[in-house]
Design brief:
Number of domains: 1
Shape: globular
CATH class: Alpha Beta
Number of strands: 7
Oligomer: single chain
Strand content: 15-25%
CATH superfamily: NAD(P)-binding Rossmann-like Domain
Distance between the termini: 45 Å
Length: about 230
């Protein structure tokens, strides 16, 4: 292990886009700090990616500030640096303002919006130090209004958060990228579009593309849909 090898921190890393991104980043030479609430798959992924020298699994509820602080502190203690952060944790809800429970709504808004903001807050000093890269998981639903979708509202908030972070970090050398996928073949969607959808690896490639640009190039948003998707 070399201390010069970059380090990427990923929330929501136990499955789906987070896990696929962890694998892709590991193959690209990153050491990985993995965060999620589900500890069993998280620990398994850390072992898959090379164990303690290459991957660190940290149980984390992104809605808890203490968890986020512990996550960043653990990554810095293990690896000594953080070069990229992917605020990826999130989940959805059925469309309709009479659907789902208020409790589900509350947890979704806290995870998708407040949790992403806490990830920025916890990691911003380390990213400034490394002149690193902040990435946020947005959505096509954060660019187009979806009827009755509070989830869409949360992703509009993340779209704004990405630009707010970019403006605050201007001049620091930190790059900011919003990843806005369409429907992805994961358990996230209960009513996906028909036909061939994106797979998590498609989004992971977009992440690696943004990370791989020269330091003077800041890819601020990547919006990627399955070819079949109209919305």
């Amino acid at each position: 292990m070399s201390d010069d090898e970059p380090v990427m921190l990923i929330t929501g890393a136990s499955s789906g886009i987070g896990a696929a991104t962890a694998r892709a980043a590991s193959q690209a030479g990153y050491r990985i700090a993995l965060a999620a609430r589900r500890t069993v798959p998280l620990s398994g992924l850390a072992r898959e990616l090379g164990g303690p020298d290459r991957a660190l699994a940290v149980p984390c509820d992104v809605t808890e500030w203490e968890d986020q602080q512990r996550l960043v502190a653990s990554a810095l203690e293990r690896f000594g640096r953080i070069d990229a952060v992917f605020a990826n944790a999130g989940f959805g809800a059925k469309r309709g303002f009479l659907e789902e429970s208020p409790e589900h709504w509350r947890e979704m808004v806290l995870t998708n919006v407040y949790g992403a903001a806490l990830t920025i807050r916890a990691s911003i000093a380390a990213l400034r130090e490394s002149r690193g890269h902040l990435l946020l998981a947005g959505s096509v639903a954060g660019r187009k209004v979806v009827p009755g979708s509070l989830y869409s509202c949360t992703k509009w908030a993340v779209t704004a958060m990405s630009e707010a972070a970019r403006l605050e970090l201007h001049g620091s050398g930190v790059r900011v990228t919003l990843l806005s996928p369409g429907t992805v073949a994961t358990p996230f969607y209960d009513d996906p579009v028909g036909g061939d959808q994106l797979v998590p690896e498609d989004v992971a490639r977009a992440v690696i593309f943004a990370l791989g640009q020269p330091p003077h190039v800041d890819v601020n948003e990547i919006l990627v849909r399955p070819t079949i998707q109209e919305f």
